[in-house]
Amino acid sequence: MKKPDGKVVLLGDMNVGKTSLLHRYMERRFQDTISTVGGAFYLKQWGPYNISIWDTAGREQFHGLGSMYCRGAAAVILTYDVNNLQSLIELEDRFLALTDTASTDCIFAIVGNKVDLTNEYALLLERADESRPEKPVTSCISTKVQKQVHLDDAVALYKKILKYKMLDEKDVPAAEKMCFETSAKTGYKVDYLFETIFDMVVPIILRQQAEGPPQTVDITNYKSAKRTKSGCCA
Ligand SMILES: Nc1nc2c(ncn2[C@@H]2O[C@H](COP(=O)(O)OP(=O)(O)O)[C@@H](O)[C@H]2O)c(=O)[nH]1
Ligand SMILES: [Mg+2]
């Protein structure tokens, strides 16, 4: 297996659909019940790079996530459920602090999943496919619910994150560009989400590679390297 060049992590409350989003993107399908305990990450080949995409493996539910989870991440996908306001609030209250160990130039995306359950979905589909002459058939509209979290709320959170990270709005991608609404169930905007992020991660990978491996100094190697250099008796 090739060593990953860059790391992307999914964060967010239990049940918002993190595993389903990753599964939809990598396996091209949706299953109503997928074991949330399982694989830690997927590898995605993106151009010449290998990007690892990390899932929480269900640990957000029982044990919390350690600081290792986001360590060195080039991108963090903060995920909430558009029908559950609390899941957006949790991103700020519980999950944002976990990103302290991410790369200093890490990019943040905020993703509202499960839009297929809302009464706005038909409209979103229509907008996404304006070339289509006829309006989509909005069957079973009665089962749809009023969306609880709006894109503006996600944009507001994005701006709070910039404050928390002490970043200037001018130096980072615009909030509107980094707030997404998706459906892992139908696949709506799932490819767009991941691929937008991968494109943005490439310059970070290049910088990380130019700077060499992070901070950790291996004393054993350092010593032996020095000895070889000075041409010691060996
Ligand atoms: N309707 C709908 N259900 C979803 C969607 N994404 C996930 N789910 C369901 O929500 C539940 C939790 O999903 P899961 O991916 O396990 O969430 P995780 O705990 O964040 O990994 C499962 O029953 C999924 O089938 C979606 O986009 N639309
Ligand atoms: Mg999961």
Describe it:
It is an enzyme of class 3 (hydrolase). One of its GO terms (molecular function) is GTP binding. One of its GO terms (cellular component) is Golgi apparatus. It holds the Pfam family Ras. It catalyses: GTP + H2O = GDP + phosphate + H(+). This protein is an alpha/beta fold. It has one domain (6-114, 149-225): P-loop containing nucleotide triphosphate hydrolases (Rossmann fold). It contains eight helices and six strands; from the N terminus they run βαββαβαβαααβαα. It has helices at residues 18-27, 59-62, 85-95, 121-128, 151-164, 175-178, 190-211, 219-229; strands spanning 6-12, 41-46, 49-54, 75-81, 107-113, 179-181. It has a six-stranded mixed β-sheet, with helices on both faces. A hairpin with a 2-residue loop joins strand 2 (41-46) and strand 3. The radius of gyration is 20 Å and the shape is globular. Mean pLDDT is 87; it is low at 223-234. The structure holds guanosine-5'-diphosphate and magnesium ion. Guanosine-5'-diphosphate binds at residues 14-20, 32, 36, 113-114, 116-117, 183-185.
